[in-house]
Design a protein that fits this description.
The chain is α+β, with helices and mostly antiparallel strands and 573 residues long. It has 16 helices and 19 strands. The longest helix is centred in the C-terminal third of the chain and has 16 residues.
Amino acid sequence: MNSRATKLLSVAAVAALALTGCAGGSKAPQGGQDGAQADPYAPVIVQSGFAEKGGNVNVLMSADFATLDPGNSNYVQTANVGQLYYRTLTMAKETAGQPPKIVPDLATDTGKVSKDGKTWTYTLKDGLKFEDGTPITSKDIKYGVERTYARDVYTQAPQELNSALTDDGYKGPYSDDDLEAIETPDDKTIVFHLKQPFAEFPALVSRSNTAPVPEKKDTKLDYTNHPVSSGPYKVKSYDRGRELVLERNENWDPATDPNRSALPDTFTFSLSSSQATISQKLISDADPNAITLDSNGAMQASDTASLNDAKVKARTASGFLGCIDVIDLNTETIKDPDVRKAIALAMDREAIQVQYGGARFGQLVTSQLTPQMVGVTEQKTDLSADGKPKLEEAKALLEGKDVPKNLVYGYANSTERYKNVGTVLQQNLKELGIELELRPIPAANYYSTLAGKEMPDIARSGWCGGADSSSARMTVDPNLGPSLDGKTYGFSNIPRFYDKDLSKKMYELRGANGTPEELGAKWSEIYNEVMATYPLVPTMHSYTNSVVGSNIRNAQVGYFFGAIDLSTVGVAK
């Protein structure tokens, strides 16, 4: 997310970057602080092993959070900062370079399941309190989940957990009395009743739905201004669009929470810096206590040489993410699968990779499913592995077709890289006789715009695999699956893909039994079928380089968060 104006790199510039190992599908030279790592995509942790408490971390960001309300968030940035002020039944604990592991958080374990797989029971730990000292009960967790059903209020509420529960048309606590799918027989016990068996359920209750919310403190949409803390920090002050300050929550008991080190005394978030300013501050070490949560560490394509500097490299946390970027094609406005396929084949994904900064910032991919996912079968595609366009094939597909003359590409206005991606697409589509308008969208409203009536014809988005990144379902179903009732496209389905037969297969597969390998293969196979219609085009599997200030310790890039994991960092005083 930046505002630096950079021109589309020419063919000559691409060739020059290729010589330095930073273009196309080549691997960029990386390495740890000694610069000698054999694996160019191995994770790097900056100054690990630090355990001293105190100090302040300055988090530099180019835009405000879309929300701080755990019940209205489907964003990894909110999940990252959220782990500082709220806790959930389970937690996706990050380890650099690896898919996160599901561990107990508010609960004593990852859940006890009934023999039929449809009932999950959790027991809360002793000593859990909100920031005001009142005990956290199972009813507070149930109420937190109930709020996410009020879709007329919380338009971005995560829905994966809700889709698994037997809700019987429940509409939330403001209009209905009780969600019968969740029982709270006592203050320490919470029981979930599912429509169908769901082997990955412990990952679902690591989502922000299960953050406890005290009903008497629920201020609906204003809750984002001061969510009541159940974690190690609480909101001290929040000036929307300018600054957020978190301070220690004195009623958080570290004995109940082995997952968060909570080393700094405070976190100060600056919410309106340009990415160009952020990257230069970090590279120059102008603020030794600074980090960023911006994508790709706020680094620009022009920062490649600086990242090779030994002093900067020593302050660079890096790692492969579970995040894969795609170009979404709105299937409601670009209805013909052949037209979508032609657009996909015409894309110069190699040039798109250059706009991300080259191979240093990730690998080109032709699928959202990765080898780490259990049971994934061969991924079939007509996209070129090296990212080069197939213009002649694309043009042949359009013969005799009703081809749109004008389309719109929407991008987050704080991210120059995404605008530059649009410039690449603009040139590619011109070869097909299609004029592409580039339309900026306010970054804070970007994903809500994609989910609403103003969704453009083409847009870029990313998906970070979810808490259970080893499950193909946790990528395929949210991105391409149907709604909760199976009658239309799902909430996170940005391309709005819905096919009577394929969507029905996905809906039915949600309740299938089998081993993780068997289910993974089935989701993988249906992904191939859906992708033959090109609702989206995979581009980059992100490898993030995030420079931190010289006082920052334990800095690691979270596989799920796609940025510095806030739960681990410390600061030397």
